[in-house]
Design brief:
mainly alpha
Length: about 425
């Protein structure tokens, strides 16, 4: 229980840092620095592109060493240093290079935290993961609400978001200190051998999930990244972006806390379908409406997408991999979705926003997500031996079961499928 409290605190600080950075970074690049929408999309694409290297690199280091908490502290401190550097830079190329340095560390924080959380809460019941992870959403919400007020109290000029970088750095550094205090029991410290990563390549359910998450992020990541530019096109500014993020997070809080109960009802694939359809509806409604009240209301669906897709995908993956490969598997999942899918999505939406207007990325993303949801039954079949309410670890459940038969350390059968 002590470990769960520390992880909840880490999530609060780390996602609080992302709550300062993510909602406003495109506005910082476009308004404070003066980059075009295309250049903003390119800089955004650098973060997930760097993550394609960082995710498996840090995941393998964590799994091979067994020192997952120390690696988590290292990448948290590295992210803090990267944001300090980024705040000193100006112009497209310096910002592009600085973003790559920052992203080498920052992109690994959440997948590593996920793998540690899964190991820590596996014996605490089906609701433990949601009750721990919800503190990350609380931290994100606090940051989204507090940052515009911090700007106002500092006397910053309208459009000047320079304080974003030191504030984000401070929160990541604080999260790193908490990571150093995380307990290191034998479950968290399970070590993988040099070639164990090959086991992941032999599991069809894992490989299908990689393709699915790539396509899902291709549809949904770009519209989310450039959402502040869409709000600006409707006449809004930083305060309106903040207000809309509050709306997004209102429903996310209870849904994340209740994810164990929802997963027991609909299963892992049901969670993914719910998340994908809600993301589609959110962006279609936003793209087709000029009424800010309707756009505001549509942002409530963000919380459903987070619960179903962002948390559901790691839940699915954790059900089919050996415990000693948790960090690598979650890193590869992030590489396929957040990184590769994010790169392609940010590039396409940046171009579409400049060439076809700021509504186009939301419309294209919503339609794409809808088509993917319709194809989901063929692309991502249910886990073998699983159904609604099942945790996916049946006796025919592929890689996880093979690991048990060969003496590999795996999650207990009664554990939940866990996620971001």
């Amino acid at each position: 229980m002590r470990a769960a409290v520390f992880i909840a605190l880490f999530d609060f600080l780390a996602l609080g840092a992302l709550g300062v950075f993510f909602p406003y970074f495109s506005m910082y690049l476009h308004t404070t620095v003066g980059l075009s929408a295309t250049q903003t999309g390119l800089v955004f694409a650098i973060t997930p592109a760097t993550g394609m290297l960082a995710h498996p690199l840090w995941g393998q280091l964590a799994d091979r060493s067994g020192s997952r908490t120390r690696v988590l502290a290292l990448v948290s401190f590295g992210a803090a240093a990267g944001f300090v550097l980024l705040g000193q830079l100006d112009g497209f190329w310096p910002l592009a290079l600085g973003t790559a340095v920052m992203a080498l560390f920052m992109t690994a924080v959440i997948p590593l935290a996920v793998s540690i959380t899964l190991a820590t809460v596996q014996d605490l019941g089906p609701h433990a993961y949601g009750l721990v992870r919800v503190w990350g959403t609380v931290g994100f919400l606090v940051a989204v609400v507090a940052f515009p007020r911090l700007l106002a109290s500092s006397g910053a000029q309208p459009g000047d978001l320079s304080l974003m970088m030191p504030a984000t750095a401070l929160l990541f550094a604080s999260a790193g200190l908490v990571a150093l205090a995380l307990p290191r029991d034998k479950t968290v410290s399970a070590r993988a051998e040099a070639h164990d990563y090959r086991l992941l390549l032999s599991e069809p359910s894992f490989l299908r999930m990689l393709l699915f998450i790539l396509l899902a992020y291709l549809c949904l990541q770009g519209p989310m990244s450039l959402f502040p530019l869409f709000v600006e096109s409707l006449g809004g500014g930083v305060n309106m972006v903040s207000d809309m993020w509050i709306i997004m997070l209102l429903l996310e809080l209870p849904l994340v806390a209740m994810i164990g109960m929802v997963q027991q009802k609909v299963g892992a694939r049901g969670l993914l379908a719910i998340g994908l359809l809600s993301g589609s509806a959110r962006w279609l409604v936003s793209a087709l409406s000029s009424d800010l009240n309707i756009v505001y209301a549509a942002q409530l669906l963000h919380g459903v997408t987070v619960m179903g897709l962002i948390l559901g995908a790691p839940l699915y993956v954790d059900a089919v991999i050996p415990a000693r490969l948790r960090s690598t598997a979650q890193g590869v999942l992030a590489m396929a979705g957040v990184s590769l899918g994010g790169v392609l999505s940010n590039l396409m939406t940046g171009w579409m926003s400049d060439a076809l207007g700021p509504r186009t990325p939301a419309l294209a993303g919503g339609l794409g997500a809808l088509l993917l949801a319709l194809a989901m039954s063929r692309l991502l079949p249910p886990l073998a031996g699983s159904g609604p309410g099942h945790d996916g670890r049946g006796k025919d459940n592929g890689l996880a079961d093979r690991g048990a038969r060969t003496g590999e350390l795996t999650q207990p059968e009664q554990s939940i499928e866990a996620g971001i």
